[in-house]
Amino acid sequence: APVVELADVRKTYDVGGVVEAMAGVSLSLDAGSYTAVMGPSGSGKSTLLNLVGGLDTPDEGRVTVDGRDLSTASEDELAAVRGTDVGFVFQTFNLMPRLTAVENVALPLVFDGWGRADRTERARDLLEDVGLGDRLSHLPSELSGGQRQRVAIARALATDPAIILADEPTGNVDTETGDRIMALLGELHADGHTILLVTHERRIAEHAERIVHVRDGTIERIEELGDR
Ligand code: ADP
Ligand code: ADP
């Protein structure tokens, strides 16, 4: 069953001249599927992720996540989707510079109402899962790019979201670290998470089961790669 559905979604930005970022996109993602989105810069990849993640709403059409229609959702409902249904991994890690690795990972749980001891324990477990058990008290500035990205992935997993949205997660790291991050996403897929990954690298996109090729705000073609 689809866990994400876009039906004829349109999104324009008015920046002293109208830009059509999504020009009528329909797409559905089955629960547990692994999809990569490829396309040139400006083709609408980030817009697609932001719509699915409830960071933005469409001008026309419908975006449904886990049965919730985001196009008519209130700001509170959108916040609930961001807090529980989806986890975001960005190219820029968006970590809080004055918080340790554990505190960064625990942050989404503060908003979810977890007590301090429970969220610290969960954050430690997650950091161990991503291979950072020995970096719990480090600040972002004390970590390498790859380690920061892994902290960001651990943070995205804190609320155990069904859907992982990753925007160029290997964009700012070396090849070896990128491979490790892709292995981590592969494990999440094997665990049943639905993954939507934006990349401009073919080699990275081939980790997915299918590649959605976008251009000028539309889906050009969908390439099935089969189960991994
Ligand atoms: P991609 O991720 O494929 O590079 P985007 O989704 O970021 O593409 O952008 C699609 C189009 O929408 C581009 O022309 C971009 O300039 C425009 N756009 C995206 N976000 C905004 C925004 N917040 N304000 C104005 N224009 C935007
Ligand atoms: P990764 O493969 O996870 O990116 P690296 O091989 O880049 O890790 O880094 C190895 C070690 O060097 C790490 O333990 C990290 O603490 C340290 N290190 C790397 N880059 C930086 C940096 N920019 N600032 C502080 N420490 C760093």
What does the model show?
The mean pLDDT is 92. Strand 9 (210-215) and strand 10 (218-224) form a beta hairpin. Helix 3 (101-111) packs across helix 4. This protein starts with a strand and ends with a strand. The radius of gyration is 17 Å and the shape is globular. It is an alpha/beta fold and 228 residues long. The strands form two sheets. The chain has a six-stranded mixed beta sheet, sandwiched between helices. The protein is built from seven helices and ten strands. Residues 13, 15, 19, 21, 39, 41-47 line the site of one adenosine-5'-diphosphate.
Q: Nutshell version of this structure?
A:
InterPro entries: AAA+_ATPase, ABC_transporter-like_ATP-bd, ABC_transporter-like_CS, ABC_transpr_LolD-like, MacB-like_ATP-bd, P-loop_NTPase. The protein is α/β, with parallel strands linked by helices and 228 residues long.
